[in-house]
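Task 17 of the worksheet. Students: predict the tertiary structure of the chain below and write it out as structure tokens. Keep your answer in the requested format; marks are given for formatting as well as content.
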Amino acid sequence: MYRKLLPLLALLLFLSGAAFAENAQAVLETLMGDDWAGYELAVVTSAAGSAVSLDDEPGATFALTATDACAFAVMRQGEQNLLVALEKEDDNWRVTDLCEGTLLQDVWIPCLRMLDTQHLCIEYLVPEGFDAFTLIYVRDDPEWKLETFIIAAWDRDVQISVQDSRLEYYDSLTGKRTTVRGAVRRSLSQIYLTSFPRTVEQARHKLSSPSLLPAFVGYRTIPEPIDFRFSAAEKYPVFAGPGENYAREADGKALLSSSDWVQIFGREREHDREWLLVQYPVSGGQMRFGWICTGLTDGTEPLWLNTRWLWSVGELRSQTELTDDPLHSHSAVVTLPSEQRVTVLAYLGPAWAYVQAEADGKNYRGFVLSDHLHEQSVPALSEAEARALALEHLKTAYPDFQTNAIMESRSVYYQADSLTCARWQFDFYLTDQRKLYDISVSAQSGAVISASGPEDPGNG
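Model answer:
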């Protein structure tokens, strides 16, 4: 197939310019390999499937465009259309992405054009009576992201400006502008042309955005979140708490893997690893609070939550469902029995309490209705009681910690304030080993808030 096309392609490429001809020829040779057996380079067609002649730009007759740095082509096999993205490295072309969703899967083949080195135009040419589509992607290294979506028809002429957090619709026939806010997937591999919201009504139905948190002032509440966006290539397992000893959500399959909006509420440290408390969209109408193990390298500094949590003791008044989605679906993660004791960490508005609990042999953090919870008033632990709990934890967590070694220690009691809970802080120094251990214990529940040994980084 390719061998027969080469003479014709060579003429068309020559007429399109020497630079384009050289790059396009090299791209064609890349797409002639065994990996592309059964595929053919697509020819630009109308909605009816008939070939479109572009006399002023003969090279665009084939669905191929190229610059000195990148190239795109539409490869066709049967009824499947595949957009192939390539980049040039050391004078060799390599495939960087294969995208099916951004193209219609029928006989209609778009024209591809590089408007400049940073903009790709995908244009569907149509006869009268059909909607015409034009998609313009911009280079946002290392991705290509949808920047503009244009719909031209006899009864409307709409230009949609596509941004990470909103879609802006402008109808040139009526002069009306409308903005719909929400998380927008823009990456080339994430766009699905058939489901892209082409109207304001569709956008309002499809776009997700974080809910406003209930107003609840004071240190007893979950802190205000930081809006963040991970790249599409990043994937993180999601657990019900800050550690792999907590249940993994969604039957062990929970994964934060999209470039949708993410809210970060704070962080904790588990030995040498940093965990973030996040909320993110899962599917239509469902969100999830959970924990992912990663640090942030862009300078973002979430609050340390270890010393902010209440760590108070609570008891359930009745059988209660624990959820990871208190603001939307309220779907149950696990059911907790009446009279079960839980550790109360914080509140989310007046309706929800964020608690730590054990169920079916697994550790969970999640939300229960505040009305189902009795937060108990427990006298503060004495220094001796807190010290005994601290020593027991250190012996379990650090094999080298020896209570019979010569030891110097310091203890400080911190009252609850606007940012932290009441707690005992101990520093243990083993003089024979020259090792320092720090540990903080809740003065109410005795829960270990933070602990670090000589081989751990600081706890923040």
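Marker's comment: Residues 383-452 form a domain with the Nuclear Transport Factor 2; Chain: A, fold (CATH 3.10.450). The helical segments are 2-15, 18-30, 200-206, 249-252, 383-397.
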